[in-house]
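for the recovery benchmark. tokens below, seq after
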């Protein structure tokens, strides 16, 4: 299974789930770290300005509630946006992998 394809589908899922109007542009289509960096900016904004919307998005993405609560309660404020972003991307990559497997 191509990591490039998984990242591309994950990027599309993130854009849809977060309602992003601008397409996420990556220098290298296989650059997971760039995708995380972009996601960190979005998560940080939502943490600061619309926490309820962020919680709703994480619920729709189907992140395990106990993991979200754990990260929210144990992470330092400086790392919270990154930890949530990595969790979100991991879930989106899992969904992308499933889509690829069942599209054949």
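predicted aa per position
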């Amino acid at each position: 299974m191509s990591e490039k394809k998984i990242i591309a589908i994950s990027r599309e899922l993130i854009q849809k789930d977060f309602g992003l109007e601008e397409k996420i542009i990556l220098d290298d289509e296989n650059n997971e770290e760039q995708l995380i960096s972009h996601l960190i900016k979005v998560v940080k904004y939502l943490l600061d300005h619309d926490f309820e919307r962020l919680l709703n998005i994480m619920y729709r993405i189907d992140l395990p509630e106990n993991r979200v609560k754990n990260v929210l309660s144990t992470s330092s404020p400086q790392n919270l946006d990154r930890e949530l972003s990595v969790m979100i991307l991991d879930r989106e990559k899992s969904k992308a992998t499933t889509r690829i497997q069942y599209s054949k």
